[in-house]
Design goal:
heterodimer, A: 428 residues, alpha+beta, Cytochrome Bc1 Complex, Chain A, domain 1, six-stranded mixed sheet, five-stranded mixed sheet, 16 helices, B: 432 residues, seven-stranded mixed sheet, 12 strands, 42% helix
């Protein structure tokens, strides 16, 4: 058996808080030559508002378009010439970044990360170029059934003033109106070290990794950085809200059906996650896969998803079906939800899914990226660095009653948001 | 024998077994590859290989439908199957102490899959639904047309998913015959990478797979594509807002020494994605086409696709036309860049970059037993020898700037290309 393997925990994760509010976590892995980092900033599209919807996404993409000392070409030459990757994107609640490189190049990549975070220059030509690329992406979205069903679902499921109802990518009319000053302003007020987390995993000594972060980001200050509030809870949906988007010329319809769900901080989060696995993940999409795909052959995919995150992320079912089978698929999905909230899951389902949750850890932790992502969650959601070591006990303590309770707290077969995007009734 | 830590064995029934120990994590990845894919299909049964792959998840007498998924998931494993033009493959990656289930399962379904008629019918609509989902994507529609004109004779003519008419008409017996013809130990390559001892796992593999009867050598496609003598063009017009361009050149097979030269060319032209099966992590913003198409605001994105294949296939370049620009403008700019490659060698800097990227991608690969096993099996099937993978990096490193110019002159010529335009129609204004 493998000699070095152990579940990451307080004994082998180094954690350091820098004086400017950045938390650095490192786990060494010297079994190959590469290093990954993964992290987040306390900034996102939550404060965009409808008028400037897409601002955070636009500004965050623009960070990599030029800095005070590097133009677009120089930034990307630095990354690509060493076979590395570096990415950064906004979500509603956070800005998420990640990088991967050979261990010898970690310093170069961290320095570049620091530069784009601290000194972006938002050059006009690059901003306009990016704007056009975003608008083209939005045009593609307008003709993509899956994306349009997701977008429409968010508008139905969340109150209009709630940030989760808006698209992080924005809309054609808002993207057109966002100015360079808006981008600068967003950067000045949102991007800062307070609350930033960076996790580094790979062939680097922990003290060296911390030193490299300190060197590039340790003296970063942004007194103007806004406090980010966690997206608030939303009122429960009390009726069926349904909307259909017609996209001519398509062969398949996409369905998204669900509700605002539990946040990652919910005390019964793990029970919800285990229940969701039973409903629409385990094996080939759990119960939903069995009834929609296996028994009736209605869809290639039909699964459920629990978004989680710091706010009330959605708990939803996603399915792609022949336009003629939309109603049948919806009825089947609703029936499964009815069963899920009416009766406890079976002993067999519970034990199978627990076994899956605990048994899959070695796979999740095989790669540096998998380890980094787990450590990031532990830090972000205050789970404790011993979370993975306690994980099996936490999973095994969940009962069918726990799952039934949390299911009933959110899901209701007579009250949900439902978006369908497809060719419309006349086609096929 | 053992090269690069890989041991190769052939069982008495002809099954090839590749084993590589890797003790970084308590995980084993087990793959079984079959020499069957859309390359082995004829009109009337297009899509059969992919459908057979679906049926392989529908149970055997020992592992009935529904039991398999649960068994793998319960053990904390992941599994899947993929069908491609040249192969169909199945894998399980499991915690090391649970791998026996995967070994038993694959041995069982190599010969005992049920193809229950009711399950075949239920899966027919799933397969059709999968194809309809693909049809929602403009690039699938355009690629399908390009393949059809690029390969008039060779079975690369049709998509792996198959033609709709065949998905509607194929029978259970057609599928079962396809299965029995190609699923046999002498047409299979099995690969394990992970936390095991070679002698121990080999003994277990012999025990489970050794008794399986070999069969007749399956038929091989015998319709090579004739030489192309002139540019071919296709055009798809559908509802939408976005235009796309694909230019596809005839590319050499994986075993052709030119393949590596073209891989380096692609890396300079469109980015490093073709340097590795898993090369998508490195962006292409310093590539020639990105500069010529995206930085000039003609296109919103551009990518290249060079895939190692058994028979000569296509090297495709694909651009998403930026709003307000035309596909003709993008085509002109793309062709100008291609011409430049034929006229002057790439720079030392570009060559150096491609080499470093290839090294980095190979280092990343070693993190995951699943990816390593995928590469080994892929090499054995597509290039006929797993060592192709072992020497891949070396082959890339030896390519020179002159080699790149030489393959540009040989392959990137107008007479050997297909140009595809996707033109959006009925642009309605709904401002989302």
């Amino acid at each position: 058996m493998s000699a070095e393997y152990s579940i990451p925990g307080p004994n082998d994760i180094s954690r350091r808080e820098l004086s400017n509010g950045i938390t650095v976590l490192v786990r060494e892995n010297h079994s190959n030559q590469s290093v990954v980092f993964s992290g987040l900033l306390m900034a996102g599209s939550a404060l965009d508002g409808w008028e400037k919807a897409g601002l955070a996404g636009f500004a965050t993409s623009a960070l990599m378009r030029g800095t005070a000392t590097r133009d677009f070409e120089a930034i990307h030459e630095t990354i690509e010439s060493i076979g590395a990757s570096l990415s950064i994107r906004a979500s509603v609640d956070n800005t998420i970044f990640g990088g991967k490189c050979l261990a010898e190049d970690l310093g170069v990549l961290l320095e570049l990360l620091a530069d784009i975070l601290r000194n972006p220059s938002f050059p006009e030509d690059q901003v306009e170029r990016l704007r056009g690329e975003i608008i083209t992406a939005l045009d593609i979205r307008a003709h993509d059934t899956r994306q349009m069903a997701a977008l429409t679902f968010a508008e139905l499921a969340y109150p209009r003033e709630h940030p989760y109802s808006r698209s992080v990518s924005g809309y054609r009319d808002t993207i057109r109106q966002i100015t360079i000053d808006d981008l600068r302003d967003y950067h000045a007020k949102s991007i800062g070290p307070r609350g930033m987390i960076i996790v580094i995993v790979g062939a680097v000594k922990a003290e060296n990794a911390v030193r490299l972060v300190e060197k590039s980001l340790g003296d970063w200050q942004n007194p103007a950085q806004r406090e980010v509030e966690i997206a608030e809870a939303v009122p429960k949906i009390t009726e069926v809200r349904r909307k259909t988007v017609e996209i001519p010329g398509k062969s398949q319809s996409d369905i998204v059906l669900g509700v605002p769900g539990p946040s990652r901080y919910h005390p019964k989060w793990l029970a919800a996650q285990l229940g969701n696995s039973i409903l629409g993940q385990f094996g080939l999409y759990g119960r939903l896969g069995e009834s929609v795909r296996e028994k009736q052959g209605l869809a290639y995919y039909s699964f459920s998803q629990l978004e989680g995150g710091p706010g009330p992320g959605a708990w939803k079912v996603i399915a792609g079906v022949n336009p003629a089978n939309v109603e049948l698929a919806i009825n089947t999905i609703v029936d499964e939800i009815r069963r899920f909230v009416s009766e406890p899951v079976t002993d067999e389902e519970l034990s199978d899914n627990k076994s899956n949750f605990t048994g899959r850890l070695p796979l999740l932790l095989e790669t540096n990226a998998g380890v980094a992502s787990s450590i990031l969650s532990m830090e972000r959601y205050n789970l404790g660095l011993d979370y993975l070591q306690r994980y099996a006990d936490l999973v095994n303590s969940i009962t069918a009653q726990d799952i039934l309770e949390v299911a009933n707290e959110y899901l209701n077969p007579d009250a949900y948001a439902l978006a369908v995007a497809g060719p419309g009734a006349d086609s096929r | 024998m053992s090269v690069n830590g890989v041991s190769r064995f052939t069982l008495d029934n002809g099954m090839t077994v590749l084993l590589k120990e890797s003790h970084q994590a308590p995980v084993i990845s087990w793959w079984v590859w079959y020499r069957v894919g859309s390359r082995y299909e004829t009109p009337g049964i297009t899509g059969a290989s992919h459908w057979v792959e679906h049926m392989m998840f529908k149970g055997t007498p020992t592992f009935p439908a529904g039991v398999l998924d649960k068994a793998i998931s319960r053990e904390g494993g992941v599994w899947n199957g993929y069908t491609w033009i040249d192969f169909t493959t199945y894998f399980e990656t499991m915690p090391a102490d649970r791998i026996d289930l995967a070994l038993r399962l694959e041995a069982d379904r190599m010969v005992n899959a049920r193809f229950d008629p009711a399950e075949v019918e239920s899966e027919r609509t799933v397969i059709i639904s999968e194809r309809q989902g693909a049809e929602n994507n403009p690039l699938f529609l355009l690629t399908e047309e390009i393949l059809a004109v690029a390969f008039r004779v060779h079975p690369y003519h049709h998509e792996v998913l198959g033609d709709m008419i065949d998905l509607q008409n194929m029978t259970r017996d057609d599928l079962y015959r396809h299965y029995r013809t190609y699923y046999k130990p002498n047409n299979a390559v099995a690969v394990a990478v992970g936390d095991f001892r070679t002698d121990e796992i080999l003994a277990r593999i012999r025990e489970l797979y050794g008794p399986l009867e070999p069969g007749d050598e399956p038929p091989q496609p015998e319709r090579p594509e004739p030489e192309q003598h002139g540019e071919r063009r296709v055009r798809v017009e559908r509802e939408g807002r976005t235009a796309y361009l694909i230019i596809a050149y005839r590319a050499p097979a994986a075993t052709d020494p030119d393949y590596f030269k073209l891989a380096i060319l692609d890396s300079a032209l469109s980015g490093p994605s073709g340097l590795s099966l898993f090369g998508e992590g490195i962006s292409n913003k310093t590539s020639r086409l990105y500069k010529a198409l995206v930085q000039t605001e003609l296109a919103a994105s551009v990518r290249g696709d060079l895939t190692p294949t058994v028979d000569p296939y296509l090297y495709t370049l694909e651009a998403t036309v930026r709003q307000g620009r035309s596909v003709e403008e993008v085509e002109e700019a793309m062709l100008a860049e291609i011409d430049r490659l034929r006229q002057e060698p790439i720079s030392d800097r570009e060559l150096e970059k491609a080499r470093k990227q290839a090294k980095a991608l190979f280092s990343y690969l070693s993190e995951s037993v699943t990816n390593q096993a995928a590469w080994l099996g892929f090499s054995e099937i597509v290039a006929g020898d797993y060592e192709w993978f072992g020497t891949y990096l070396e082959s890339l490193m030896s390519v020179t700037a002159e080699d790149v110019m030489e393959v540009a002159q040989k392959y990137l010529i107008p007479q050997r290309r297909v140009v595809g335009h996707y033109i959006p129609t009925n642009v309605e204004e709904n401002d989302k």
